[in-house]
Each structure stands twice: as C-alpha cells, then as structure tokens.
Specification:
Elements (H helix, E strand, L loop, with lengths): L1 E7 L12 E7 L8 E10 L3 H4 L19 E9 L9 E5 L5 E4 L7 E3 L16 H13 L7 E5 L4 H12 L3 E6 L2 H9 L4 E4 L6 H8 L4 E6 L3 H7 L3 E9 L3 H4 L13 H4 L3 E4 L9 H14 L6 E5 L4 H9 L6 E5 L10
Helix pairs in contact: 2-3, 2-9
C-alpha cells in the first residue's frame, strides 16, 4: 500500500510559499501491536504548525527537512492491532498531512471517536475538535470565567476565537472581538458578540478597545500576541486574567518578535497571565465535548469553516491561513464525499 504525504521541502522565510512543501509517495509499513491504520478523511489546518517549520525549539519539536507536516487528522480505521479500535471505527490523532496514518498509544491525541450522525465530520476537526476544545478549556479552566464579565477575544473570526467568543456569550458575558477587516467584524457581530474592533481601521487601537469595554477586560483571550497583547495589558481590569492561547502575530517572524513595552501592567492590575496546551487538561475534555456538541446541534453555536478538498491542495490552504485570508476553521477534506458544515 502506497501512502501520499506532504513533507517539508525547505524552511520558509515569513509567510510560507508553495516551494516549501513537496508531495511524496512512500510504502505503508506493517502495524506493530497496539497500532491502528486509518485512511484520513479530514485534516485540521492550524497556525501553530508554522512555528514548527523553523529550526527553532518550542513546545513542539521542529520539523526536519523531508519530514511530514504535522496536524490533527480524522480517518476511518482500515486495519487494527489495538483491541480498542475495530475496522470501520473513526480514529483521531496528531499525525500529519498524509493519506494514511498510523496511530499508536504514544500519540498525545489518539482517540476512538464516537461520531454523532447529526454532526458533519469536519466539525470534529474544528468547533468540536481541538480548536473548540481549546476555546472551552482556555475560558473555563485557565480564565476561570464567570458570568457577567467582560471578555475580549483576539482573532475573533478565527478557528479558536470564533468559538471562544460564542462560548463567552453563551455563558452570560459581554464579548468584544478584535479582528483585522470589515468583513471579519461583520462575522463576529453576526455570531452574537457585542462589539468588534478592527485593528487595521484605527490609528488608536487602545482607544477603540477602551470604548468597547470602558470598565476594562476581566478576561483577554489572546490568540495573536504582539501589538494587540501589548495594547491590551493597560486595558485589563484589576485581577484580570490573560489566557495565552497563541502568538500568531509572531509565527511568520519568530526571530524578531514584537517587543512588549507594557508588561509592567501585570503588576499594576495584578493580572494573571498563563499559557496552556489543551491536551494537558483531560479532566475537562468530556465536559467540553458534551457542551460544544449540544450547542452545535441546538444551533446556539455556529461553527465557521473554510474547506479545501484534496491532499495536494493542503499547502495552499495553509498558506491562505498564514496570510490572514481565512475565517473560522481551515479544514482539508481528502475526498469530495466527506460531509462538512459548509456542504
């Protein structure tokens, strides 16, 4: 059996380019005890992958030249040497851009997924996948969100931000979304957020955010870092919480990150600022999945998706994401017959 895979051809400088990736064919090896072979149906395309394409240590190891581009995958089990998986089950795990993946018990996200027939497969890579779970855990566990607060979310039209803003609203809070275009501002207010601030449309970002939340932010859910994080620090309410989910503003220029000049405001406002990785909080995973699935099925939570079809088109989908051209969750379905929320 031959496997088609997308590997790193060269390290990108700034926004990735098509020539940084290469499609290869390799044989699928035999399974060892405990392993499962899945034929992938949907990929989750994530901005955090960009940091792994540089030769720089982070919380995940850098991809080697010729190495598989990592991502969350969802596929159908075609062969199993693991008693928890049977042929025809759906497996989810952290593997990469390829047609077939082997899951093993050491995989941080290996899961026999119980798919709800009322929910399209693509949702399990987005709002009901680790993007939505990250939003839930970030707000509930890290941000210790309570009702009646003011929550500011950056990249609020993105995969995590669009879910975080809706969850905060569903929990009874005032929500302000920070975005980068007029269209994205319309999207977040259409999702029910109370206000949208377009950071590209103002010369006074701090003033625009302050006008949207004059009492300060109790929680800032940060997906971008950089200038927006620096601007938010003086705008936090006393004892506010900053949930550090991502630093997308620095992903394309990690060697020269934006300098934070207002860090002393952590002391002024007695701010708690904490980064997190969602998979390190399994104690809240079932609660997150149950809540999000219920909201999707009831129509209370709208899952934004932009869908690309075909393994060979995966690099282009990633490039659009890293160029800021997308809204919601970027997913790749490998075949036309995979149902998505946008179908």
């Amino acid at each position: 059996m031959l496997n088609r895979r997308v590997v790193l051809n060269s390290r990108p400088t700034g926004v990735p380019m098509p020539e940084n990736f290469r499609l290869v064919e390799e044989p699928v090896r035999e399974l060892a005890d405990g392993e499962v072979l899945i034929e992938n149906k949907v990929f989750a395309i994530d901005p955090a992958t960009r940091g792994m394409l540089d030769d720089r240590e982070s919380y995940m190891k850098p991809v080697e030249i010729g190495g598989l581009i990592p991502t969350m995958v969802l596929g159908r089990v075609v062969k199993s040497r693991n008693p928890a998986f049977r042929e025809g089950d759906y497996g989810r795990g952290y593997v990469g851009w390829e047609r077939y993946s082997i899951l093993d018990p050491s995989n941080i996200a290996m899961e026999n997924l119980r798919v709800d027939p009322q929910i399209p497969l693509s949702a399990y890579m987005g709002a009901l996948g680790w993007s939505g779970i990250t939003a839930y855990i970030g707000l509930q566990k890290i941000g210790e969100m309570r009702s009646g607060e003011t929550v500011v979310v950056s990249a609020a039209a993105g995969a995590v931000g669009s879910v975080a803003g809706q969850i905060a609203k569903l929990r009874g809070n005032r929500v302000v979304g920070i975005v980068g275009s007029v269209d994205k501002a319309d999207i977040v207010t259409g999702l029910g957020m109370d206000a949208a601030v377009n950071y590209r449309a103002t010369d006074d970002l701090a003033g625009a955010i302050r006008a949207a939340c004059p009492g300060g932010a109790n929680i800032y859910f940060d997906n971008v870092g950089g200038r927006v994080l620096d601007t938010m620090l003086p705008l936090m309410a006393d004892f506010g919480r900053i949930v550090v989910c991502g630093m997308v503003a620095n992903y394309n220029n990690a060697g020269d990150p934006y300098p934070l000049r207002n860090l002393w405001q952590v002391l002024v406002h007695r701010i708690t600022m904490r980064g997190f990785l969602a998979f390190e909080h399994p104690e809240i995973l079932a609660e997150a999945e149950e809540s999000i699935a219920g909201w999707i099925k009831s129509g209370q939570l709208k899952a934004l998706e932009n869908v690309t079809t075909g393994l060979e088109n995966t690099p282009a989908a990633f490039i659009r994401l890293m160029s800021g051209e997308t809204t919601g969750k970027t997913v790749v379905r490998l075949d036309d017959d995979v149902a998505t929320l946008g179908a």
